[in-house]
Amino acid sequence: MSLEQATNELVKAALMLLSVLAVYGVKQMINYLNVKMGEAEANKALSLVGYIKEQVKSMVRFLEMTGYLQKLDGAAKFEKAMAWLQQFFADKGIEIDAVELRHYIEEAVQEMNNEIKDESWYGLLQGNAETKVEKG
To answer: Which of 45, 50, 89, 111 would give a disulfide with 94, using CB separation of 3.0 to 4.6 Å?
Structure first.
């Protein structure tokens, strides 16, 4: 084998190695981007769930206050919350399943009820004269 043939073979081998490394690098970059895009999508989804929960919580609290004044029962407040929230999210372009929305509403009501029960004035609202009211 001549020196020229050996040089050609060496160049071919080097080009082959570079092409293999380039393909490997592209695959690694694609995997990295898939992971990053997955993380970004996950963060976006978590952010959206947080937004939905905050909007539901606000609506539940609003309906609790106005429903008390209007003498609405729990079922009527729930139906109003479902209708208003479905329209609100539709206007924002957020697709939300009715079952999922029902879950968020029930969760917000439970959280609100727990907060109310933790307040020192809860007993007064229930007619319990023995409840202590803290003076600040």
So the answer is: 89
